[in-house]
């Protein structure tokens, strides 16, 4: 199960583990996470696309517990930031 907290943390919980895996997104505390979408075509990849209420997006790799890319607001004319 995946869920987002009010503190903009993404939590992935496996029912067989006591503690969830957590990723903290570096976003404004007033921003809300309002979209989560899994890439589940291939079981070898554990990608999650996260959208916020202000138009930003993040591509997260859960197998490495890191943010791969950060996309700026849609329509801002800025390119994405690649982290790896």
For the termini, the CA-CA separation is 26 Å
Structural class: mainly beta
Work out the number of β strands. 8
Helix content: under 10%
In terms of DSSP E residues, the strand content is 35-45%
Sketch the major β-sheet. Answer: 5 strands, antiparallel
Q: What strand line-up does the widest sheet have? A: 4-5-6-7-8
**Global outline:** globular
Nearest-angstrom radius of gyration?
13 Å
Enumerate how many helices there are, as a single number: 0
Please trace the helix and strand order, writing H or E for each element. Answer: EEEEEEEE
Q: Please mark out the parts with pLDDT under 50 across 5 or more consecutive residues, or reply none.
A: none
> What count of structural domains?
1
Mean pLDDT across residues? 78
